[in-house]
Specification:
The chain is of the alpha/beta class and about 290 residues long. It is about 15% helix and about 25% strand. It has a 7-stranded mixed sheet. Strand 3, helix 2 and strand 4 (about 80) form a beta-alpha-beta unit. The protein binds D-malate, manganese (II) ion (MN) and zinc ion.
Length: about 290
């Protein structure tokens, strides 16, 4: 399977437009690489590509990735888009994908319902096929590729929150994807509030895991002075701590890559102790343009 990390950052990107934190300032000044927002392209045959989440940066991401350039006067090698939730960083790019070129759009019923707004009518449904995903039922979005979506702990999109949402609900609002081709099994989980025993069992034996690397620690926004929300409140399990992804996924034997990395995360500093800890634990950090073949 061929994978291209189109965008390695969480919502907001790096630098984020309104943020002057150290990471954002360093990215702005070119001391660390900038990152666009959360998206991955995947292909079994190298011809037809499936884009996992449509980020607000998709136009620039497609320009930067030759595999996604048109091969005819009008058209795209992108056969399908799969959504893992309804967050802005995962759906806003759909507005860029107007212009009448066909593709399939896969999402759970709950996520596709979010697109039932007048502005998303720019995706003409006689051209863009809206295809509901049923949890735990495999489907094939492209030749040679089988995908199964499954519930992971998570919450509704920020703009749908009412009062105190259940931040680790299991259902259609946040899913992980199991991708399989003839050669390998890959998991893509950009948002996950808890690493449950069930999830660990499901991942067992996979070749590659692309996992939620939003925050290093739960109190990161308060510590960096950028906000008050905890990772848990945002629906993201931290990397560190006894229930963090480093500890909980320590036994995963395949390749491990953090994606959806927030601009507040100290691992983005190359000389940080946190970066060293992640590397020592066998994880790498995704970056824009990263190519992985499994
Ligand atoms: C998240 O992953 O928590 C969201 O992308 C937040 C947001 O929509 O800004
Ligand atoms: Mn996000
Ligand atoms: Zn910042």
């Amino acid at each position: 399977m061929r994978l291209r990390i189109l965008g390695a950052a969480a919502g907001g990107g790096l630098p984020q437009w309104n943020c002057g934190c150290r990471n954002c300032a360093d990215a702005r000044d070119g001391r660390i690489p900038s990152m666009t927002q959360s998206s991955v392209a995947v292909s079994a045959d190298g011809l037809t590509w499936v884009v996992l989440n449509a980020s607000p940066d998709i136009r620039a991401q497609m320009q930067a990735e030759p595999a996604l350039h048109p091969r005819s006067l009008r058209g795209t090698p992108m056969g399908a888009v799969i959504l893992t939730n309804g967050d802005i960083d995962h759906i806003a790019g759909l507005l860029t994908l107007r212009e009448g070129t066909p593709f399939a759009l896969h999402g759970t019923k709950a996520t596709l319902a979010i697109l039932d707004e007048p502005v998303f009518r720019v995706l003409d449904r006689s051209v863009v096929r809206f295809l509901p995903i049923r949890l735990d039922e495999p489907f094939s979005p492209a030749e040679g590729l089988t995908v199964t979506a499954f519930a992971v702990p998570g919450k509704v999109a920020l703009f749908l929150e009412e009062e105190e949402p259940d931040t680790a609900a299991m259902g259609e609002q946040t899913v992980g994807l199991r991708l399989e081709d003839a050669d390998s099994v890959v998991f893509y989980i950009p948002g996950c509030a808890q690493v449950t025993d069930d999830l660990c069992r499901k991942l067992d034996g996979a070749d590659l895991l692309l996992f939620d690397g939003t925050v290093w620690q739960d109190e990161e926004m308060r510590r960096t002075g950028t906000g008050t929300k905890t990772g848990a409140r945002m629906g993201h399990v931290p990397m560190s701590g006894p229930d963090g992804s480093l500890a909980r996924l320590a036994d995963f034997a395949g390749r491990r890559v953090y994606i959806h990395i927030n601009n507040t995360n100290p691992v983005l500093q190359p000389a940080s102790a946190e970066r060293a800890e992640v590397a020592a634990a066998g994880w790498s950090l995704a970056f824009d343009g990263m190519e992985i073949t499994t």
